[in-house]
From TrEMBL:
Belongs to the FPF1 family. InterPro entries: FPF1. This is Flowering-promoting factor 1.
């Protein structure tokens, strides 16, 4: 995971490959793979189905309508994702990987 951490308006976020040319951005896009089946996660409906099978439940208590959130009753972990799947970046992918070891992997799309 490469990039620069930017702090703006009280929010810190990772800007991936800030010096990369616009034409080269797509080739470096990351995808998340569900390891048991080798399936590339291409939608939130697919991801939600897999997370549910791993014991995650939708969490509606956060109050932020711009986020999809999942929690596990057996842990204090919370997964927060942007509702718009086009904003599902490697930062969110790695969060899922860390909280679900041996089930997901992030790799370059090419």
């Amino acid at each position: 995971m490469s990039g620069v951490w930017v702090f703006k308006n009280g929010v810190i976020r990772l800007v991936e490959n800030p010096n990369q040319s616009a034409g080269d951005t797509h080739s470096r896009r990351k995808v998340m793979v569900y390891l048991p089946t080798g399936e590339v996660i291409s939608s939130y409906s697919t991801l939600e189905q897999i997370l549910r099978s791993l014991g995650w439940e939708r969490y509606f208590g956060g109050g932020d309508t711009d986020l999809l959130q999942f929690h596990k009753r057996s842990s204090i972990d919370l997964i927060s994702l942007p509702k718009d799947f086009t904003k599902f970046s490697s930062v969110y992918m790695y969060d899922i990987v860390v909280k679900n070891p041996n089930y997901f992997h992030v790799r370059d799309s090419n």
